[in-house]
Design goal:
Helices cover about 40% and strands about 15% of the residues. The protein is α/β, with parallel strands linked by helices and about 325 residues long. Helix 2 (about 25-35) runs parallel beside helix 3 and helix 6 runs parallel beside helix 7.
């Protein structure tokens, strides 16, 4: 019932992709996602060297024999080491699925696909999806304003973006932003998506390497718990509305320039907070689907619940 071009292309059981989460998408979570029938993705930009990335890839391989991918963020500020080294690490380790994000991937498509790798590209605007198809991308992910992390400055919702993107390209479309349960998966498939990207929901799993304080925070959250930061810079970031987020919003309201704001949003501070459990120790990116989370469970339990609910929803609307 849930087989699509994406499941066939990626060699996965279910049309669910683990959203790449900075500092959190490590071997334990990525392998658990893949072992549960989804596609886990390692974010290369969170490692300081090619050697560190290779080490994490090998650790993930030791935990799963299922497909997983590596994300290469093309945004200049997200390059702790060269993109060429990231691509080399992927090829040397035999990774056959690569996701790019952040910028137009045209300059790297040939290098990424030279060994038969599947090239996924994540974007937040319809025109970027159309361009990606023309340049030879195999499958594209479109993310709406509901998503955690960086949506488009155009602030278009997931449902509208999905409909328009499916009408605009012929390659398989995956969608993210606000999806955390089986009804969301079923709705996306009915609307033409061939896979969904789920990020925030995976934070509240046993395998996610974040302090339990953050997992419990999500369980207790309302759908209004997040906010958009850096709108003033034209680069919105959806995050939990904690004390740090409030500080950033106040600075933006006063017209503070982005160079002065960014130290408050340091990724290193956020990483430290994730480990210590300090809910106000840094910016905590997460999506509006935080308000749909009602308990912490294992990755496998979560995926099984989503699939069961999605299949029930599809049977209901098809009259089966």
């Amino acid at each position: 019932m849930l087989k699509t071009r994406v499941t066939e292309m990626l060699g996965i059981e279910y049309p669910i992709i683990g959203g790449t989460m900075q500092w959190l998408s490590r071997a334990e979570l990525v392998a658990a996602q893949s072992n549960a029938g989804c596609l886990g993705i390692i974010p290369s930009a969170t490692f300081s060297s090619k050697e560190e990335l290779v080490e994490e890839i090998r650790k993930t391989k030791s935990l799963t024999d299922k497909p997983f991918a590596v994300n290469i963020n093309l945004f200049p500020m997200m390059r702790p080491f060269s993109i060429d080294d990231m691509i080399e690490a992927v090829h040397e380790e035999g990774i056959k699925i690569v996701e790019t994000s952040g910028r137009n991937p045209a300059a790297y498509i040939e290098k990424i696909k030279k060994n038969g790798a599947i090239h996924m590209h994540k974007c937040a605007r319809v025109r970027d999806a159309v361009k990606a198809e023309k340049e030879g991308i195999d499958t594209v992910t479109i993310v709406g304003i509901e998503c955690g992390g960086h949506p488009s400055g155009e602030e278009v919702t997931t449902l509208v973006l999905l409909s328009k993107t499916v009408d605009s390209v012929s390659i398989p479309v995956m969608v993210g932003g606000g999806i955390s349960n089986g009804r969301g998966l079923a709705a996306a498939l009915v609307m033409g998506a061939e896979g969904v990207v789920i990020g925030t929901r995976f934070i509240a799993t046993r395998e996610c390497p974040i302090h339990d304080n953050f997992k419990n925070l999500l369980v207790d959250s309302e759908v209004t718990a997040t906010t958009l930061l850096l709108r003033s810079a034209g680069a919105p970031l959806r995050a939990y509305r904690n004390k740090v987020a409030e500080e950033v919003l106040d600075m933006e309201a006063k017209g503070t320039n982005v160079e002065e704001i960014l130290p408050t949003m340091s990724g290193i501070k956020g990483k430290e907070a994730y480990m210590s459990g300090d809910l106000n120790g840094g910016v905590f990116p997460c999506g509006q689907s935080a308000g749909l989370i009602n308990r912490v469970m294992t990755v496998r339990e979560m995926v099984e619940e989503i699939i069961k609910e999605a299949e029930e929803a599809i049977r209901r609307i098809s009259g089966q």
